[in-house]
């Protein structure tokens, strides 16, 4: 199946498969059936088989899936082995937390630089990199060619910094700014993260009978935004 024909819903389940398979591997599992995996993940065996069949034939009749091999195949599909160079824009509390707590190397990226405008954070080291002034952004990009950026800047500053990054050749964004980059940059690959939306969704679940009972996911397409 062509990459463009695979639904966003399937793509977004792959990291969950990868995580569960990693846990199974750590617990000594060498193989698992689609039924067993479905029970652990709260999915159906049919859904798992359909999802994985989008990318090839990974299981064997009567044997199931080799846990380590399937985890490796999903890592390859997700590009986790690529270590795409990434920079951080905005070294405030959120930016620092992301740089210091996330294993970028284990998630397909390599954090190679961090930038801010505040004198108080310039020169600090976070996540193994030094925070530089954004005045140095273009020169750094010319030298190191980052392909992706984390945006932890205010919404008011996001459009300008995104324009600069696009001019520098950056095309992928993990966007915490609440600014829609696709308004001006249709070709950009954007993963929008709205933490407050996630908290409000939890509020609904806590306070609503429907939220507590649950509503089965339809598996429809999404627009690349994450709560």
Can you characterise this structure?
This protein is α/β, with parallel strands linked by helices. The chain is 42% helix and 18% strand. The chain is built from nine helices and ten strands. The protein has helices spanning 8-26, 34-41, 45-53, 67-78, 93-101, 137-144, 155-167, 195-207, 209-213; strands at 31-32, 65-66, 84-89, 109-116, 125-126, 129-133, 148-151, 172-175, 189-193, 225-226. The strands form two sheets. Strands 5-6-4-3-7-8-9-10 form an eight-stranded mixed beta sheet. It has a two-stranded antiparallel ribbon with strand order 1-2. α7 (155-167) links the parallel β7 and β8.
What descriptive keywords fit this protein?
227 residues, alpha/beta, eight-stranded mixed β-sheet, 9 helices, globular
Structural class: alpha/beta
Biggest sheet strand line-up? 5-6-4-3-7-8-9-10
Number of helices: 9
Give me the strand/helix succession: HEHHEHEHEEEHEHEEHHE
The number of distinct β-strands equals 10
Query: What would the average pLDDT be, to the nearest integer?
Result: 89
Poorly predicted segments: 218-223
Oligomer: single chain
Indicate the radius of gyration in whole angstroms: 20 Å
Distance between the termini: 29 Å
What's the overall geometry?
globular
Helix content: 40-55%
Strand percentage lies at 15-25%
Tell me about the largest β-sheet: 8 strands, mixed
